[in-house]
Amino acid sequence: MAVLRTFLFFLGAAALSSVAVLCLWGDIYLFDYDIPEISLTEIVQELVLAGIVAIHFLLAKKHELLRYCNILVGGFFLTMLIRELDAVFDLISHGSWVWFALLATLCAVILPLKHYRQTLAQLTEYTRSPWYGVMLSGLLAVLVFSRLFGMQAMWHAILADGYVRIVKNAVEEGSESFGYMLCLTASIGYYCNFRRMASRNASLANAGV
Fold it and tell me: From its phi and psi, is residue 151 left (phi > 0), alpha (psi between -120 and 50) or beta?
């Protein structure tokens, strides 16, 4: 059963990765070889981030176990979501997303800082989760790999006189979307694992163990 569950989860993760590529392909053809601010790729990235935020905040609300860790992780991805929605916040004032991101960060760190000893212990426990490595890989893809691999200077050097901006954009956005899908996969896996762990602990407590 465990092997079957793992295989099914792999298929689900593969489907999520395929969605990222399909959105990119759709944008290229729908928007005349461009990936604008309002596009399938951007919308899916924002929905994925919203899903990750919802998962961690839901766990923080319903379960005391690892509550402060989940608040921090959810708050971190909330700031990333606000950054992705910069075009929306620009309707208020150009660059105003920064202030909303700072506000979200402040709200997310108040309780964890107030209970910093428990927070540190919970963060340590979180790093022992089997899904921590997947989450870390996703963040590396989003924050480091996609930025470096999408450098304009590098693609000018690779394509020379044949440089086309859409190539650089597709590579960068595709790498970023893949990273977000890894983070979502890790969050779903973490959620399922966390619920099993919480249920087991509750059963032991009811049995008086």
Answer: beta
